């Protein structure tokens, strides 16, 4: 069979193919197949595409593009061609814009592959997590000094109480801080001044003009003695108790510690003695209350190694000495003194005592209970109206700007508010105690000095950068210290102790939880001949999580011992 050249039609009317070309039988000759004209500018579509989704957003455009090669029916093709010739686009409205979220990609408007879309979603998720973490840190920093026990999760599990719990102590009460924050009690009557002792010197106003550029070197006063006498060792309080002037006796430092209990983080303790119908609030010799805390309420914990100059104990000792030296340097030491009714009750003859005024004041809590407290004032200032103003003097200390995050030498002149806000966040309890002591003593003004190390690694030499003055009531409102809540805490503790029998008790702030425990202790506790024996760890009150962990460790140890014993018996039997 030879090669078939096919039928070549001839056009008798002219050049080119005839109007109706003859189609070979092999190609379906005799069928009516129309010719669809097209131009070179038209885009050629696909002849057959089974992967397209006709319901997609580009279905209309694909259908119009491929309609030229749609040979479904001749009649339909002619009708479609007529409709296409008469169709005009009249809707010129732009397509709706898609909302944009997340990062602006370089090819955001172009069709993206599924892999590119997954990367964009993952990037958005990571950015959202970073933003949420940043908001959480900001929220924690802002709320830290308003909520008690906020650093409970960060407290070290190895933190020890300020006093060793003895085996013969009995726990009588356990009070969470949440109960203290709800208390409120107002002392209606003004306090009555029963007696004033000691002498105070005038404040040197030249220190109000000190600034970081003209700082003053902090001097040392080794010849002047400072007294931290507890309540029952005070001869004046003993005399007032014998005269039955009140039923409750304390010092301003002890009352301030009780009033600011919800803000405390570190452990402390107070001894309470019930003698007849009277209560005496005391502190132990070498108590934690004698030292000033540093960065107690900060988020970052200080190192526990006492040999480190930036440890909590080293900074507390340093802050205490700074506070004492500052309170003497800002006075007119060779000038006039203001003496009170009686001399300093704690200084002996020939001894140079630091000038401090002791005011024994009495508050009436109810018809049966009245409180007497020994309060301190550190200086006096001449009032422009001709009177006198009593002052309290305290110093904040900067040890390392890299830890606190604020450099006082750069910020004190331009951003004093930021420096004070940082101190309120890191030392909320200390500032609240100073404010409470100023309110108790009836001081007209409290002076806060900002003292910094000459070098961050030198804890012996310091400089006074500036001194600021505040009215106690205004400053209490600024740091959110409610006087009604302060007196409510004292009144509730007094009522609890009045229900106890005669004896000695101790308040202990839990080192890891926001709560206070009250223990009944022997009458000779904390005396010179009292031998302290720490309570065994298995008998101390601990959180349930610690108890469960210890139980699991004991079970594991017992199982290991049993396995070892069985192995030893097997070895002996084998040897036999």
Automatic annotation (TrEMBL):
Statement: the UniProt record of this protein carries the keyword RNA-binding: yes
Molecular functions per Gene Ontology: mRNA cap binding; translation initiation factor activity
Subcellular location: Cytoplasm
Principal place of residence: cytoplasm
BP GO annotations: cap-dependent translational initiation; formation of cytoplasmic translation initiation complex
Listed Basic and acidic residues bias regions: 116-134
Keyword Hydrolase: no
Sorted UniProt keywords: Cytoplasm, Initiation factor, Protein biosynthesis, RNA-binding
Annotated segments matching region RNA gate: 288-302
Annotated region (Disordered), positions in chain: 89-164, 533-576
GO cellular-component term (any): eukaryotic translation initiation factor 3 complex
InterPro entries xref list: eIF3d (IPR007783)
Stretches with biased composition (Low complexity): 548-576
Annotated domain remarks: The RNA gate region regulates mRNA cap recognition to prevent promiscuous mRNA-binding before assembly of eif3d into the full eukaryotic translation initiation factor 3 (eIF-3) complex.
Classification via HAMAP family: eIF3d (MF_03003)
Function: mRNA cap-binding component of the eukaryotic translation initiation factor 3 (eIF-3) complex, which is involved in protein synthesis of a specialized repertoire of mRNAs and, together with other initiation factors, stimulates binding of mRNA and methionyl-tRNAi to the 40S ribosome. The eIF-3 complex specifically targets and initiates translation of a subset of mRNAs involved in cell proliferation. In the eIF-3 complex, eif3d specifically recognizes and binds the 7-methylguanosine cap of a subset of mRNAs.
Family label: Belongs to the eIF-3 subunit D family.
Subunit: Component of the eukaryotic translation initiation factor 3 (eIF-3) complex.
Protein name: Eukaryotic translation initiation factor 3 subunit D
Organism of derivation: Urochloa decumbens
């Amino acid at each position: 069979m030879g090669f078939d050249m096919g039928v070549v039609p001839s056009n008798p009317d002219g050049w080119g193919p005839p109007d109706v070309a003859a189609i070979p039988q092999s190609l379906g000759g005799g069928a009516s197949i129309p010719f669809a004209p097209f131009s070179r500018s038209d885009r050629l579509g696909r002849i057959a595409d089974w992967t397209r989704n006709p319901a997609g957003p580009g279905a209309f455009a694909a259908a119009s593009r491929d309609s030229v090669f749609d040979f479904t029916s001749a009649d339909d093709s002619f009708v479609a061609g007529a409709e296409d010739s008469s169709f005009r686009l009249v809707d010129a409205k732009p397509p709706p814009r898609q909302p944009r979220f997340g990062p602006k990609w370089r090819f955001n408007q172009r069709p993206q592959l599924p892999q590119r879309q997954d990367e964009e979603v993952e990037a958005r998720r990571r950015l959202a997590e970073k933003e949420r973490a940043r908001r959480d840190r900001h929220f924690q920093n802002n709320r830290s000094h308003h909520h008690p026990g906020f650093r409970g999760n960060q407290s070290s599990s190895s933190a020890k109480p300020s006093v060793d719990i003895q085996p013969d102590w009995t726990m009588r009460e356990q009070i969470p801080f949440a109960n203290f924050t709800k208390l409120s009690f107002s002392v209606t009557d003004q306090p009555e001044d029963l007696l004033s002792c000691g002498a105070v010197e005038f404040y040197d106003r030249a220190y109000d003009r000190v600034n970081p550029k003209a700082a003053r070197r902090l001097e040392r006063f080794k010849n002047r003695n400072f007294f931290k006498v507890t309540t029952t060792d005070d001869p004046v309080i003993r005399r007032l108790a014998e005269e039955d002037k009140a039923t409750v006796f304390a010092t301003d430092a002890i009352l301030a510690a009780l009033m600011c209990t919800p803000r405390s983080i570190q452990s402390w303790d107070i001894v309470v003695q019930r003698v007849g119908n009277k209560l005496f609030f005391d502190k132990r010799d070498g108590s934690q209350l004698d030292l000033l805390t540093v960065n107690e309420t900060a988020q970052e914990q200080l190192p526990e190694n006492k040999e480190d100059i930036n440890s909590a104990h080293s900074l507390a000792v340093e802050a205490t000495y700074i506070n004492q030296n500052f309170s003497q340097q800002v006075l007119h030491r060779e000038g006039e003194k203001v003496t009170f009714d009686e001399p300093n009750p704690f200084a002996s003859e020939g001894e140079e005592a630091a000038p401090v005024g002791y005011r024994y004041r009495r508050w009436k809590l109810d018809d049966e209970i009245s409180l007497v407290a020994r309060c301190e004032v550190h200086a006096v200032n001449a009032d422009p109206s001709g009177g006198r103003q009593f002052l309290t003097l305290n110093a904040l200390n900067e040890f390392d700007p890299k830890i606190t995050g604020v450099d006082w030498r750069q910020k004190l002149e331009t951003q004093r508010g930021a420096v004070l806000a940082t101190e309120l966040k890191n030392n909320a309890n200390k500032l609240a105690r100073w404010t409470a002591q100023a309110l108790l003593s009836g001081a007209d003004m409290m002076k806060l000095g900002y003292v910094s190390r000459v070098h961050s690694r030198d804890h012996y030499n310091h400089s006074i950068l500036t001194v600021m003055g505040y009215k106690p009531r205004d400053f209490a409102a600024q740091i959110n210290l409610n006087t009604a809540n302060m007196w409510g805490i004292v009144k509730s503790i007094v009522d609890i102790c009045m229900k106890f029998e005669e004896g000695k008790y101790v308040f202990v702030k839990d080192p890891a939880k926001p709560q206070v425990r009250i223990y009944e202790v022997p009458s000779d506790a904390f005396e010179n001949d009292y031998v302290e024996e720490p309570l065994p760890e298995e008998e101390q009150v601990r959180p349930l999580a610690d108890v469960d962990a210890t139980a699991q460790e004991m079970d594991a140890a017992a199982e290991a011992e049993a396995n070892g014993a069985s192995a030893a018996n097997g070895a002996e039997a084998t040897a036999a």
